[in-house]
Write a structure and sequence with these properties.
mainly alpha; 2 domains; about 80% helix; elongated
Length: about 90
C-alpha cells in the first residue's frame, strides 16, 4: 500500500509513531507528570483551580503550535521536493 493509500485509510499516525520511539520525550513527560502531581498536592483548592486553568491553556497553546509546526514542515517539504521540477510558489 502506498503512503497516500495509508493516509486515506487512516493508517498514518505521525504523532503516535514519534511518541513511541522518542525516549527523551517519554522521560521528560514522566518528569513533568511527577512534578505536576507534587505541585498539585501542595496547592490550596483555589490555587489548584487556577493551576488547572493555566495548565489547560498551556496545553491548548502547545497543541496549536504543534499543528502549525507540522503544517509548515509539510509545506516546506513539498516545496523542497517540487522546486527542482520548476514548480515554484512564493508563499509557504
Amino acid at each position: 500500500m502506498t503512503i497516500l493509500e495509508n493516509l486515506w485509510y487512516g493508517n498514518v499516525h505521525p504523532v503516535e509513531e514519534f511518541l513511541e520511539v522518542n525516549k527523551e520525550y517519554k522521560n521528560l513527560l514522566r518528569i513533568a507528570a511527577k512534578d505536576q502531581e507534587r505541585l498539585g498536592a501542595s496547592l490550596t483548592p483555589e490555587q489548584a483551580e487556577l493551576f488547572e486553568k493555566y495548565d489547560s491553556a498551556v496545553k491548548e497553546v502547545n497543541a496549536t503550535a504543534e499543528v502549525e509546526a507540522f503544517s509548515y514542515g509539510f509545506r516546506l517539504g513539498v516545496r523542497l521536493m517540487t522546486e527542482p521540477f520548476g514548480v515554484i510558489r512564493d508563499k509557504a
